[in-house]
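Notes to self after the Tuesday call (sharing in case useful).
The group wants a holo model before anyone commits to mutagenesis around the pocket. I volunteered. Ligand is KG4. Logging inputs and output together so the record is complete.
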Amino acid sequence: MHKSGKLGSMKNMLILGIESSCDETGVALYHSERGLLAHALHSQIALHAQYGGVVPELASRDHIHRLTPLTQQVLEQAAVSLSDVTGIAYTAGPGLMGALLTGAGFARSLAFGLDIPAIAIHHMEGHLLSPLLEAPELAFPFMALLVSGGHTQIIRVDAMGHYTLLGDTLDDAIGEAFDKTAKLLGLGYPGGPIVSQLATQGNSDAYKLPRPMTDRPGLDFSFSGLKTAVLTTWQQAQNLRANDLEQATADICAAFEVAVADVLLIKLKRALQQEQLKTLVVAGGVSANTHIRATLTQLMRQRGGNAFFPRLEFCTDNGAMIAFAGFKRLQAGQVSQDLDFSAKARWPLAELS
Ligand code: KG4
Ligand code: ZN
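Result:
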């Protein structure tokens, strides 16, 4: 438990943020008055690419190697010293258990050594608040669409920590659907950026893919049927000549991306209508997708509202969103008190208060 009153008045807080829930080590420094001072990221994509997906044990080992140098890097970038840090925020879940524990252990030990508070952050709350890093005008209440490798959720946000889950996926998460589609088409990992890049060269009208769960009421999603439809379409394309098959691959990517964006559009329209909200926040790795960003920006424009997205580099996992969420929670007087800490592989956002 921290003894000092370093947090003191809520001024001049300097929060170190640590993210290690999956395959990216992210570290950042956020200052209460000066905003984001520095952030650094190490992506493990090259490490896992040969296996076609994240290998948890390798992820944990790599985080351990990166945490100290990345912390030194952000301190140098921000021209501050470790003793200036007044609080440490770390991702405590959801994510890969071993990977989470590396960041949690590092953060809690450092906080103990410095005699400053540590705060456990929910990874998806980090994503959800990330647009606020650069859009202070964003006000509650708003609708949030969280779209990542593990989540596809529509959430009503009334205040920080006041989250009502309105819609969720019944099977694959949307990022997972991108990743599986890429794998199926032999395009590599991670699939989202590859599929969306290839989609720019394709004709989305060349194939008609389903828009699952849109023909029935409700706000839940299902993406496994779409993946199966991609597989069937891909199998049928196999008798094409090499050049044509290449074009067909781009066409399938485009058709897939448009189908996914359509589903999001239909569900969000319903959710916004139901809750009478005019502000939409879209966050998580898939919010980097250009077509989805354009589709949802247009939707909000048509409804006389606004759509907010994180800066591209803060769509996928990063330390800045954790430092910022930590700042918000520490500012609100919250601290993880015990030396005894745990990470949570599964942790519903709605359980936060
Ligand atoms: O938020 P994130 O970095 O990690 C999780 O919390 O899961 O999201 C990673 C997911 C991956 O599934 C990746 O394929 C997807 O985000 N992604 C994209 C794009 N960039 C990343 N999906 C679609 N289009 C993109 N441009
Ligand atoms: Zn994430």
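Two things stood out.
The chain has two domains: 14-130+315-351, 140-309.
Confidence is low (pLDDT under 50) at residues 1-8.
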